[in-house]
Amino acid sequence: MNCRSKKSIKSILGIAAAVMLLVGCGGSDIESRTEDTEKDDDLQLQQNIEEQDRAETGSEEQPEQSGQSGQQGQPEEQGQSGQSGQQGQSEQAERSDRQGPQQSAGEELGNQLQDRLDVDRILEEQSFQVKLNDWGEVRFVSYEPDHSGENPLEDVTFYLLRGEEILYQFPYIGTEDTSDYGMYYDVKFVVFTDTNADGKEDVVIGAEYMTGAGPQGAIPHVVVRIYEDYGDHFTYNEGFSDKINDYLPWESNVLAKDVKRLIQLTGGNGQLTDYESYSGKWRVSVGYVAAYEETDPVSRNELICQITNGNEFSGSLFTEQGMTQRIASVDEITGTIQNGELFYDFTDDGWGGTGTLHIMFLPNQINVDVLNHQMAEENASGYGISGMYEMKIRE
Question: End-to-end distance of the chain based on CA atoms, in angstroms?
């Protein structure tokens, strides 16, 4: 009911009251009523009209209240209490307006990502349940590309999930959802470690690619990518990743512990004191690349080392000449690595030769330099342990 209707009803009530008063004063034409009866009738009439007024007003004004987020929904009779409730609802509505679009966008992104996930493309062996910084308990998922799709160079993707909810998709490192390193082949390792000394574990991934160009084009090579955690997102550190990749030979069997060592040595996190990650077989050989081109190796040179207690070394150095199959070796090498170096005096290399092995532990290779080499007089062949051996191939 509009304001004009309200004024008409109030005017009618005024005229009726005046007529009844005049008639009452005459006293002869109308039967007199008691004061109680007159009051009851007037009160009942007033209540009936007010109820009709409220009903019509409510039906006409309700759409306007709904458009104002219900701020006017409380009766005015509530006074101060009603105003406090309206203010609280107003603040809540404002917060909802500010947060609503963000939540809607996040839900939309989650739905889009969820639609892309195919269980058959999840690399289970490279997907892990981890407790990751402020993200809490999450599942890290490695997700293979679909090379049968429109983009044959599509790169591998990585996600953080909590239950069925996708919390985060890691950014691609190349252009147009690629890596810029060739065709994806496999994920070799995933490491959670602090790469920038900020107290948070970052994500280090070793993915393999093939270029298809040149003799080594069909040989998978490892490319390391480092994602640093910045609380609500991860940033790909391209410069640091390239620095690590520069130390990785194309044909090397790169291991996760090698990359962790490289990060420690090149990331400014202090001098390396734990050398145990060097344990294993290192070799100087034609490598996978040259072996692809030439099946018969010219020589075989290997350093087998076992490192315990951080820097206690034991191992052996072995060489074999490919054409003559002559063999030389220094066995039972022992010593303590200090400042990345180990010196060992040997008295027989299998041909009577003597000298000192200077073993240097570099970021991603081991060099063996033979110092003060003395060949035995009876060694007519001239073969033995001598020269410099650059051990870059890891097995």
Answer: 89
CB 208 within 8 A of CB 188: yes
* Alpha helix (H) residue ranges in 217-321: 238-245, 256-266, 287-293
- CATH code for 272-395? 2.40.128
| pLDDT range class, residue 242, cuts 50, 70, 90 | very high
Domain residue ranges in the chain: 119-270, 272-395
Token digits of residue 61: 């004004």
Element of type H or E holding 358: strand 354-362
Query: Which band of pLDDT confidence, cut at 50, 70 and 90, is reported for residue 213?
Result: confident
pLDDT band at 14 (very low <50, low <70, confident <90, very high): very low
DSSP code per residue over 138-201: EEEEEE---TTSS-TTPPPEEEEEETTEEEEEPPPSSSTT--SSSEEEEEEEEEEE-SSSSSS-
- CA angle centred on 97, ends 92 and 102, rounded to 5°: 120
Dihedral Cα 16, 22, 24, 25, nearest 10 deg: 160
β-bridge pairing 312-321 and 165-169? unpaired
The tens digit of pLDDT for each residue in 72-85 reads: 333 333 333 344 44
Q: In this model, does residue 117 exceed pLDDT 50? A: yes
